[in-house]
Known about the structure:
Blueprint (H helix, E strand, L loop, with lengths): L1 H10 L6 H7 L3 E3 H11 L11 E3 L5 E8 L3 E5 L2 E6 L9 E7 L3 E2 L3 H8 L11 E11 L4 E10 L2 E12 L5 E11 L14 E15 H9 L7 E3 L4 H8 L4 H16 L3
Antiparallel strand pairs: 1-13, 2-12, 3-4, 3-12, 4-7, 5-6, 6-8, 8-9, 9-10, 10-11, 11-12
Helix pairs in contact: 3-7, 5-7
Amino acid sequence: MNQNRLTASKRWPRIHNKLDLARVRTTKLPMAILCLVVSCAFPSANPAQVPVYEITRGESTIKFGVDSSVSIKGTFDKWSASIKFSSTDARSGVLDIEIQADSVDTGSGLKNNKLRGKDFFDVKDSPIITFKSTKVVQTGPNTFDLEGDFTIRGVTKTEKLTLTSTGKGSTSGSIDGTMAFDRKDYGMNKGIPFIKIANRVEVNVSLKWKSADLRWFSNNSSKFDNTETESALDLGELVTTHGLRSEDRWSECGVILFRKNCRCG
């Protein structure tokens, strides 16, 4: 009889807690789902996740304009931008923008050439325009003031980008902001013959972003299509116990924590 008990105990481990019970009634799920479950079930076991964003260039724009007797407005066709965080606090974010000055496009070849010249952007000696934020001040639920180093024509000064952010808690969103500067502070003292030009130049930034973690999951999801394993928790119980009823909550927890904590790939 003791031998039978020993055999049974080997086949059926003792159920010490809820987790063991869930294992007993396990079903087979793709590895990706298992990782989602473990990540959501034990959030306290992992530090808060630092967001990782990727700017989608095709949907984003950097424009500028200056009041003048003849319209001088345009965009830049070649640029790069990044948003990086050192913690989950939005104030730890750093926005870094780099623009190729000779990619200016006003829709007029004459204006473009004038702006590329030595009196304005001076693209030959100073081909890059940059902005790198150094301080973030939250002014409202979705509004921020970003102080940063702005460099044009080789001159660097502190300027402020006022922006509005959308998409908090989701996998995509946008950053729309405005910065104004005095062109004469950067050595652009001359004008254009027969055209009256104001000193104040306004720059408008519209950046669309997606979660880099979501892009990684989408690009690598095929790795897990045919992988099966035993689940550690019953999905229905997980939803009930941890309140994971929101589709967005599942998306954020399952996709963003998937890459960082599960390491299934």
